[in-house]
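[recover] target loaded
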């Protein structure tokens, strides 16, 4: 039993030793991506805030107060539009229905609507990015715990009178920790895509708003030319 326990512990130690090295490698590589953001684990560079110019070509939105909706419908509309489960074609219809009135009224509504969407989605993206960095810090902590446990197990294995029960217990703990670490590591690429998807959502919605304004202006111009 003692021999089999030692063999089991040694086999687990060997496999987990490799995983421990991978864990520390993951932790170190996360630091190397961008020295300004040591907890950012993603291959995509961290951009703290969405650039308005990259998602909106309309009037400036800096002076717009987004803490209060322009009208009762706006808050509900923004929630529907911001949700990625709302298909973009459905979003276009909702936007077209909301942007009613004269050209000036439509322009004002469009600008305020985009400002509210920018505030909402940029805030969501910020929350996601903070969560990613918390995840990264937790992974680094797990990587360090794996390294320390692997070192402790190595020391026990090197002793001629090492406790087989303790070695076996450490082996089980190490195997479990490395499994959790790997499961989380595999999810990194998925969670790192979320900020990109949010930014793309904002770009698509901004384009939909501006397209509706252009279509309406074109329709008015055509109507005006036909009446002459």
């Amino acid at each position: 039993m003692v021999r089999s326990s030692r063999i089991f512990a040694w086999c687990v130690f060997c496999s987990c030793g490799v995983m421990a090295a991978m864990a520390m490698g993951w932790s170190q590589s996360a630091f190397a991506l961008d020295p300004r953001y040591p907890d950012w684990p993603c291959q995509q560079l961290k951009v703290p805030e969405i650039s308005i110019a990259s998602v909106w070509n309309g009037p400036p939105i800096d002076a717009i107060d987004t803490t209060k909706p322009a009208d009762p419908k706006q808050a509900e509309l923004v929630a529907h539009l911001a949700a990625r489960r709302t298909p973009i074609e459905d979003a276009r219809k909702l936007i077209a229905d909301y942007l009613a009135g004269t050209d000036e009224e439509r322009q004002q509504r469009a600008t305020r609507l985009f400002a509210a969407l920018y505030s909402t989605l940029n805030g969501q993206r910020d929350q996601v990015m903070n969560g990613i960095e918390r995840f990264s810090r937790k992974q680094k902590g797990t990587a360090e715990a794996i390294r320390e446990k692997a070192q402790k197990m190595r020391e026990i294995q090197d002793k001629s009178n090492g406790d087989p029960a303790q070695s076996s217990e450490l082996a089980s703990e190490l195997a479990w920790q490395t499994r959790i670490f790997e499961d989380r590591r595999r999810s990194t690429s998925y969670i790192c895509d979320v900020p990109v998807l949010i930014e793309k959502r904002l770009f698509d919605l901004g384009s939909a708003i501006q397209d509706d304004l252009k279509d309406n202006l074109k329709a008015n111009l055509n109507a005006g030319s036909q009446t002459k």
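[recover] notes: The helical segments are 2-32, 72-82, 88-98, 103-158, 164-186, 188-227.
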